[in-house]
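Researcher: Next sequence.
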Amino acid sequence: MKTFSTLILCITLLFSGCSQPPNFKSTDISGADWGKGFTLTDPQGQTRRLVDFQGKALIVFFGYTQCPDVCPTTLSSMREVLGRLGDDAGRVQVIFVTLDPARDTAQVLAEYARAFHPSFIGLYGDETATAAVARDFKVFYARHAGSTPGSYSIDHSTGSYVFDPQGRLRLLVRHGETPANVAADLKLLLAGK
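Model: Next structure:
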């Protein structure tokens, strides 16, 4: 009986050391074979790549500055997420990638991103680079003609992509996810989960 009790105790201790997978609120896409990187330009004309942000959790959102609803609500939500992170906010970078490089000039993109939070960075590429990055991230976007040539709208995917500090794609955040849930997920990633 004593041997059996010792065996049970050893098994219990062995399995108590095994860690459970993190309980993310967002969709866990760890190990996805897409969204591996980007080479785009920031408003200061500097080439930026995914590897430039290693060491921080990175949130990447695709949209355009004339978007009437999804883009401003997402970026407002991300501002609130940073507010909920306290001191950890400095370990998170939000990136806004434009799907409308024809209208979203460097100046427009810089002003737009900063209007939501001074740390947010807007990135752009030419039409070819934009299409390549969108394809790599599995982002859908389609231009719809407006009443004048410059008044078109763009339908686009609404999720945000979250990379851990090691530069690995980990989460897909649904549009409308609460800032509290996104902040909780980021805290897990920042803790090495």
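Model: The longest helix spans residues 70-85. The mean pLDDT is 90.
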